[in-house]
Design a protein that fits this description.
The complex is a heterodimer. Chain A is α+β, with helices and mostly antiparallel strands. Helix content of chain A is 29%, strand content 9%. The chains are: A alpha+beta, B alpha+beta.
Amino acid sequence: MSTKVVDRAPLTFYERTYLPAILGGLKVTAKHFADTVFKGKAVTMQYPEERWVVPEGYRGAPYLVKDQDGATKCVSCQLCEFVCPPKAIRITPPGSEGRPADRANAEKMPREFEINMLRCIFCGMCQEVCPEEAIFLQKDYSITGENRESMIFNKEKLLSLGGTHAGIQKWKHKLEEARAQESFPVETP
Amino acid sequence: MSAPAAPSTPPAPAPAPAAPPVETMTVKVNGKTVQVPKTMPDWQGKPAPTTMLQAARIAGVDIPHYCYHDKLPVAGNCRMCLVEFGTPMIGPDRKPVLNEDGTPKIARSVLPYEPGTARGAIACATPISPGMEIYADSKATQQMRESVLESLLINHPLDCTICDQAGECKLQEYSVQHGKAGSQFVEAKVHKPKAVDLGPRIVLDDERCILCTRCIRFTRDIAGDDALGIVNRGSYNTIGAFEPGRFDNNYTLNTVDLCPVGALTSKDFRFKMRVWFLKETKSLCTSCGTGCNITIGSREGVIHRYEPRDNDAVNGPWMCDSGRLNYRWIGRADRLKEVLRTSSGGPRERITWNAALETAADILRRAPQGGVAFVVSARQTNEELFLLKKLATHTGALTDSVPREGDPDRLLVSADRNPNSNGVRLTGMAFTEFGFNLLKIADGIALGRIRTLVVFGEDLTREGLGPELLAKLDALIVSDILPNATTAAATLLLPGAAHAEKRGTFVNVKGRLQRFQKAVEPPGDARPESEFLQELVQAVTGEEPARSIEGLFNRMAAGVPAFAGVEWARIGDAGVTVQL
């Protein structure tokens, strides 16, 4: 590979007066002015009363989701905490004394799950690494708070913001399969 | 560093008579020729014919395995170590068949009824023979591994996300290294009991078990408690306890370390922290005089677990449950965190380390010869004891330590529950029998002869020196980790550091000098004792402090006859044996 030197054409005298650039800019402004005043086609929005439509696949704030039965999907595997580049995620595992999972058979869910929204860079690594489809980047882009503490979202808040994600319920499926078999009938509360 | 040839240095021991030459044989591993001994120690240390797995290890090739363990009898049931191999061909004249270039012709092992297919042998239980060739990475070997892994995973729940073993699971690791992505098994998996309560410290998940029987062999042959076994048949094989819930000997948690998968889990560590977050620090167990080598797993200043660390000279790969679970006190909320001074008649005030050390130095400098006594715990490190000995010598003080005895067992637990009793003896802080001088010290205080008492890490009110007696002292300088009646009575309280929060050395009951490293930071104002003691020694005697624990140790090695010639760097991770 060699370096290719691009010829830079010298500016003409007319160009060096800056006039073509200024006039070109004014033309765009004049067009928008005319569109707004005479045709009623506004290019700005009255934010925050008016909001733009967030496109599909937009990477907003990550929130935790519940399954179709309303149970916490996160099993506290801490892969998102591990992969998070700005270390915005902090999970407190349940330990042996902690509350068991919402769902039978899943055994485990986080005691606390915190995302520091000031640290989060909305990269989506947590969503990509999650083996339980429990965390998704959603459409919220404007997150404000009155102090730094209020920008650390806890598990309760993340779950209430996240909503429901109806995916494959593998733990439920495993349990049904276990209940159906003749040997070792599984008893769960 | 120069090695001073002081006349006091004991002469080097005469070289041991030369060991008889080891009989070796030549084998080839992955095309590499290696000389291996004909016999190697088995799990009990007795010589046994060298196996293909051991020969491969000597050649630097690691053959994957689950059921095999150096310190357990060979079972040969997981089949993971299957390898293709070949032996020199023998002609009808019983002479080796040679290739055209004169090298012996090798016959690869094949199935007798299907000569085109390689026949593997389990490397853990197959002895080597002269001229044998082991193909640890041949295509046939790889296919065997793939198939073995596929069948091990038939009924495995693949629940790594909630499995404590994830990150240190051999099933995960070998599946990535040697397995294949898909499974041909389309039927429903057999679901086995989950979260079975085996004993007070163990939970069993039967679904994850690969039936390697390491736990069974350990508890039968090492711990001597034949409590586990396999029940049911075929796909329904499960590990079970003879009496469920009663698998409770003092070594049960070793089965958790041994378990190559996440079937046996520790109730203490269960769901506490993912293992890849843990920082591993080489340390020592302080619960008894055996001094088991441990690895401390900590994250962000919180200790999450102890695990045994291999050291054949001390504990092998094992440790007892009571020692392993004895770590929560380090993170207790009521740890001593402040330097406190009680002025005569006044209230306790929080002061700086500088002020405290000045106060202590002042007391020790003014004290008449024999007016001071030292009671030091055999939980202090050699370096701290060495510094305390300097202070004691300077003040002509009576010194002693406190014995701590318990019932020994036949495996690891020692009757001496102090981790460094021999360190106390070697540094000269107490006689062979601890507690000998305690009565004299008590008398001295009662008679008013001893006006200053320095206590490190012991509660004297439990040893017959009650609060009324301690109240007679002019100064009671106490350093400890947790509060007790003696720290409550102290006129000067210096918060110390737990072993996990500092570096140092201990000498175990058999005379093994071992060092340990720092895992976490001490809380609040607490500092490692060797640090502030060096400053105190400087203030009292004018001796320059060493800049590091290495320097301090080397200085001590020059001053304590038993440690002569030992250097910090030479202790290594396994320690060295010193003359008691």
